[in-house]
Amino acid sequence: MVSDMVSIETVCVTGAGGFIASWLIKLLLKRGYFVKGTVRNPYHPKNFHLKELEGARERLILCKADILDYESILNAVRGCSGVFHIACPVVNDSKLVLEPAVRGTMNVMNVAAEVRVRRVVFTSTMAVTYMDPNRNPDKVIDETCWSDINYAKAIQDWYCYGKILAENTAWEVARKRRVDLVILLLNVQSCLSLSILLYGWT
Ligand SMILES: NC(=O)c1ccc[n+]([C@@H]2O[C@H](COP(=O)([O-])OP(=O)(O)OC[C@H]3O[C@@H](n4cnc5c(N)ncnc54)[C@H](OP(=O)(O)O)[C@@H]3O)[C@@H](O)[C@H]2O)c1
């Protein structure tokens, strides 16, 4: 069970209405954080559940923002000490995924640098580590492994290709502009078990 802690920090969560972001916001609110969650359409019913979360009335602000629009993200991140950059289309369509993955991540990282947040946490995926046809099958996969970007492109795995580019973009801006960056390598199982571990099945 998550312990109730009190925090007065404000953090920004991009793509607030999505699966992982919604669980994260529930956890942050429970821990006493103030949260600015970005949604592209605050009036869409798919985001209504956020307002029902415990503590949301007092400590959750939904900001209309698109990660492709620098000013809207700047507005959302202003006043925050940290950013969880989670927004990204989870689809295998180059037209839908590549621009938000790359330019969206660049915008969020540059905003984080401009606002001087203390840390950015970026949700990447396990897929950026193991997709390499030349990988030694006996090698244990960890965060030092990289998928072969040319292979991802060749097999038209645009989601994986986009996430590799996005992670590279995040590291590049972090190094150049001295942003403290943490990357999480998630997979479906870890996401599901995390939510079950934290809150049970309901
Ligand atoms: N779920 C998994 O098993 C898994 C595994 C590995 C990694 N991840 C990573 O975790 C993150 C979230 O995944 P999820 O499963 O929670 O996805 P999800 O439920 O589909 O949520 C994605 C979110 O991204 C937002 N988004 C997309 N394009 C945007 C844009 N241009 N500007 C602002 N917001 C935008 C969507 O907002 P709208 O509602 O406005 O479209 C949505 O809220 C992604 O970065 C994904 O790569 C997920």
UniProtKB/TrEMBL annotation:
Where are its TM segments located?
6-29, 181-201
Transmembrane is among the record's keywords: yes
Domain of life, per lineage = Eukaryota
Question: What Gene3D superfamilies is this protein classified in?
Answer: NAD(P)-binding Rossmann-like Domain
**One example of a Gene Ontology biological process annotation:** steroid biosynthetic process
Tell me any Pfam family this protein matches: 3Beta_HSD
Record InterPro entries:
3Beta_OHSteriod_DH/Estase, NAD(P)-bd_dom_sf, NAD(P)_dehydrat-like
Q: Which UniProt keywords apply?
A: Membrane, Oxidoreductase, Transmembrane, Transmembrane helix
Domain 3-beta hydroxysteroid dehydrogenase/isomerase: from-to ranges: 13-169
Q: Does the keyword Repeat apply?
A: no
Q: State the Gene Ontology terms under molecular function.
A: oxidoreductase activity, acting on the CH-OH group of donors, NAD or NADP as acceptor
Record's PANTHER family?
CINNAMOYL-COA REDUCTASE 1 (PTHR10366:SF404), NAD DEPENDENT EPIMERASE/DEHYDRATASE (PTHR10366)
Report the protein name in the record. Answer: 3-beta hydroxysteroid dehydrogenase/isomerase domain-containing protein
Species name: Protea cynaroides
